[in-house]
Design a protein that fits this description.
Layout: H1 14-48, H2 50-53, E1 56-57, E2 60-61, H3 62-105
Antiparallel strand pairs: 1-2
Amino acid sequence: MNPQPSSPPEIHSEEFLRLLMRRQLRLSCACAAAFLVVLLGLPLANYFYPEAMAQRVFGFTLTWFLLGIGFFPAVWVIALYFIRRSIALEESELNSVSGSKSAAGK
């Protein structure tokens, strides 16, 4: 007997959801790591480079400037990246399953 080629998973199957969740988990871990770098970067910079972080920028120390101006935009960029990549993962999985169904039906 010849083994049949593996067919792509159905859209609502456990295999499809598991594959999608695994890819989204990798994306979540990468975004969480980026957030931790942003979150822990400022205290570590203050600890290892106190002179540089005490420099004045627009009347504020570099520490306060980065905290006030840089932290929230960095978090927004990470969140925006996560949302866009997550949607793109879902769409690519859906297209791969839908595309293989239409090719199998021909």
